[in-house]
Each structure stands twice: as C-alpha cells, then as structure tokens.
Specification:
Structural class: mainly alpha
Radius of gyration: 46 Å
Number of helices: 3
Amino acid sequence: MFLSLFPLLLCLITDKLLREENAGLSEKNAVGEIHKKKSKKPPKPPRPPKSLVLGAADQKLVREISELAMLKRARIERMKALKKMKATKSSSSSGSLCAMAITLLFLLVIILQAF
C-alpha cells in the first residue's frame, strides 16, 4: 500500500516545490522590474562649453562686430522692403496706360500732318 502511494506523494512534492520556485522567481522578477523602472532616469542634457574670459578690449571688439552685423541685417531688410514696394508700383497699369495714350496721340498727329 505504501508503494502505491509513493508515486502520488512524489508528484505532489515535486509540484509543490515547482510552485514555490516559480513564486520565488516571480517575486524576484517583480522586485527587479521595480528597481529597473526606478533606475531609468532621463539623461542629463550636455553642458554648454565654457567660453574663455575676454578682456575689456576684446569685449568691446565683439560688441562692435555685433552692432555692425545688426546694422547690416537691418539694411538688407530695408532693401528687401524697397524692392517689394517697387515691384508693386511697377506692376500698376495706370502709368503705362497714360504713356501709351500720349504715344498714340503723337502718332495720330504725325499721321494726320502727312495728309
């Protein structure tokens, strides 16, 4: 009778051990996953390079160069605005129609004087 129960007891014991091992592994994985999630921090942005300390004369030179660049940029913007205004003015047909009417008038006078 004991020999007939032996395989059944062996199966129950192995099943119990397997469940305990799986439970232990799942607890370890859960703890490990929590630590992994906490340890993932966003990377720090790179620090800007440190610039050299400029002397008073160098700072004045840099300031003058930046002022000249701003003046040049402003002049270019004004030139672009003038070009746009000229383009819109030249496209107006009233001036060209007036010139064409005067030209036709002179042509008519010349042709009529020939007769």
